[in-house]
Amino acid sequence: MAIQPIRLFGDPVLRQRADEVVDFDKELRRLVEDLTDTMLGAPGAGLAAPQIGVGLRVFTWNIEGEVGHLVNPVLELSEDIQDGTEGCLSIPGLSIDCRRALSVVAKGFDQHGEPVTIEGSELLARAIQHETDHLDGVLFVDRLDTERRKEAMRYIREAEWFGLEKPAVKVSPHDTFGLGF
């Protein structure tokens, strides 16, 4: 329905565990539409409800032209690991290698309360893990090794947008690798 402002690193909502969705109603469908519109407008590969200030366990993704959403996700991760570039719409302009499970089976619900299972590998698996982390108050920089985390935090501290009370932009203008989540 509408593009919403994306919350930036430092906003407390990004560090809180989101609540389970219990009402699969018109408001939830509007939230899924807003998440989708905001993600596509950014552009990003995924967006979680806390990133637009809503503390519910809902996220969207856009991987290789497939747009979807998942409510109340529960993940089963593979033991196989992948390293790859990752970014985040809540940390504009930062792209850095991050280790994730190679594949994932995500179980949850669609916006109508119907059970769904999403199986993905590589980029889809990365997006699902990244967005589920957002629902748990975890940012991808928390998953970096010590050296990469220091590099990421240095970038954040020096970023023009860091420390602003209100987001300077509605969506990230910096998605260099097309991997903003």
Automatic annotation (TrEMBL):
Which parts of the sequence bind Fe cation? 88, 130, 134
Task: Say which domain of life the source belongs to.
Answer: Bacteria
User: Would the keyword Cell membrane be found if you checked this record's keyword annotation?
Assistant: no
Q: Which reaction does it catalyse?
A: N-terminal N-formyl-L-methionyl-[peptide] + H2O = N-terminal L-methionyl-[peptide] + formate
In terms of InterPro entries, this protein maps to:
Peptide_deformylase, Peptide_deformylase_sf
The record's family statement is: Belongs to the polypeptide deformylase family.
What this chain does, per the entry, is described as: Removes the formyl group from the N-terminal Met of newly synthesized proteins. Requires at least a dipeptide for an efficient rate of reaction. N-terminal L-methionine is a prerequisite for activity but the enzyme has broad specificity at other positions.
Protein's name in the database: Peptide deformylase
Per the record, the gene is def
